[in-house]
Amino acid sequence: MVDIPFVRDIRFEYGVVERIAPGIRRVIADNKGPFTYTGTGTYIIGEGSVAVIDPGPRIESHIEAILAGLKGETVSHILITHTHLDHSPAAAPLKEATGAETWAYGPHGGDRRGEAVEEGGDWAFQPDHLVKHGDVIEGDGWSMEGVFTPGHTSNHMCFQYREAKALFTGDHVMGWSTSVISPPDGDMKAYMDSLRLLLDRDDAVYWPTHGPAITDPKPFVRAFIAHREEREAQIMACLRSDARYIPAMVKIMYANVGEHLHPAAARSVLAHLEHMVDTGRVVASTPKPTLHSLYTAVSR
Fold first, then answer.
1. Which residue has the higher pLDDT, 27 or 261?
2. Which of 34, 89, 124, 219 is found 20 to 30 A from 3 (Cα to Cα)?
3. Distances from the Cα of 289 to the Cαs of 84, 155, 189, in angstroms?
4. What is the biggest distance separating any 2 CA atoms in the chain, rounded to whole angstroms?
């Protein structure tokens, strides 16, 4: 098994805006859970006139904590990494309170009829400004570069605080856990390509929206890539041992994971199988891969 160098130790107090690095503050929402770890970390960049990254869920106490912690300062920008309900809904009341506009790749994608995993999609969010890969957003004493990283969602955008070479990775790369890739909005090929994109960058540190900083990014990303490749090797082994339906694969591949997480695991296996069908390594019994398709390995 791939040894992922997880980092899970994080010290904080809910509702308190804390300085965690020069030019970077964070306040964590009390929405802890199996997909959010200790909760959503909302980041504040700059001093006096600031950007807020991922304002988080629409929890009144969290919104009040952000505003209280920034009393006497101006929020000039609200940046959204992606539109799951634990990341973007607080943008609306924060915008109403401060007048700041929002920057993001775009609204939530996918299919409303798709099976919900994680926190679900924020279908109400519409950014004021669309951000493309390489766009630079400038504020008072700080600048942020958009780094488009689809895969976890189709609209996932990381942001690099250029003055510190600090990349805010949203849910693309987290230190405490791997990311859930759930079709139809999640896409495994896009996710793998987005991981490889990070290997060509010079980011010094990652700040995920959940969990602590990743201070040695490239070995971590390489381990994530190797982990996903290992999952696909496990799927091939399942197919060759006649475990050809996703529920049977999940029981084998995630035998040491609580059954309450198996539905999310099944979505991740589906994402891998979509990728493997697209690349000609597997065929499905249905025109498009589904959770209920029968899968067959292609002989080489």
1. 27
2. 34
3. 24, 22, 14
4. 66
The tokens 């929206």 sit on which residue? 209
**Does the structure show a pLDDT above 70 at 40?**
yes
Give the separation between CA 156 and CA 117, rounded to whole angstroms. Answer: 16
- Give the whole-angstrom CA distance, residue 259 versus residue 128: 41
Q: Phi-psi region for residue 113, left (φ > 0), alpha (ψ -120 to 50) or beta?
A: alpha
| Strand partners for 27 | 42
* Residue bearing tokens 């004021």: 128
- Which element (helix H / strand E) includes 148? strand 143-148
Rounded CA-CA distance 118/290 in Å is: 19
pLDDT digit string (tens) for 243-290? 999 999 999 999 999 998 899 899 999 999 999 999 999 999 999 999
Which regions of 223-281 does DSSP assign to beta strands (E)? Answer: none
CATH code, domain carrying 258: 1.10.10.10
pTM above 0.90, yes or no: yes
CA distance 174 to 179: 7
Q: Pick from 224, 259, 274: which residue ends a domain?
A: 224
Is residue 141 domain-shared with residue 247, that is, in the same domain? no
The pLDDT value recorded for residue 110 is 72
The answer to whether residue 188 is domain-embedded is yes
Mean pLDDT of 200-207: 98
Helices (H) then strands (E): counts for the chain: 6, 14
Q: Which of 140, 161, 144, 138 is nearest to 47 (CA)?
A: 140
